[in-house]
Amino acid sequence: MIDVKKFRKEKKLTQVAFGKLMGYTHAYISNVENRKEPVTDNFLDRLHEVFGIEVEEFKSYNQKPVIDDPGEEYLPKWKEKYYELLEKYNHCLEEKEALSKKLAD
After folding, report:
1. Which backbone phi and psi does 2 adopt, to 5 degrees?
2. 25 phi and psi, to 5 degrees?
3. Residue 36's closest CA among 8, 56, 16, 66?
4. 21, 50 Cβ separation under 8 angstroms
5. Could you write out the DSSP letters of every residue in 24-78?
6. Any idea what DSSP says for residue 61?
7. Which of 3, 37, 49, 65 has a CA between 20 and 30 Å from the CA of residue 31?
8. Tens digits of residue pLDDT in 71-94
9. pTM (predicted TM-score)
10. Maximum CA extent, the chain
């Protein structure tokens, strides 16, 4: 993953100034820096247009990704969460049905 914040700070730019140069809002820049938004091809193309930097050169500003390869190790956790939520949902349906039945009587 590319470290946009490191690059921006080396250019001595605020998020607002960097966003204006790039044609993005400072909120979007913040989201990219905090990995809430991905670094897109359009973003990289714009970096090339504005700063004349080659994509390969920009990749030298790499930062460690949050998850290198989620693979199978994360699947059980999500599966477990899914079944937990499904169980809660079914319990709520049962309670709703019981309450409806009481009200009908």
Report:
1. -90, 135
2. -75, 160
3. 66
4. yes
5. S-HHHHHHHHTTSS---HHHHHHHHHHH---HHHHGGGB---S-S--TTTSHHHH
6. G
7. 49
8. 555 566 667 777 788 888 888 889
9. 0.54
10. 76
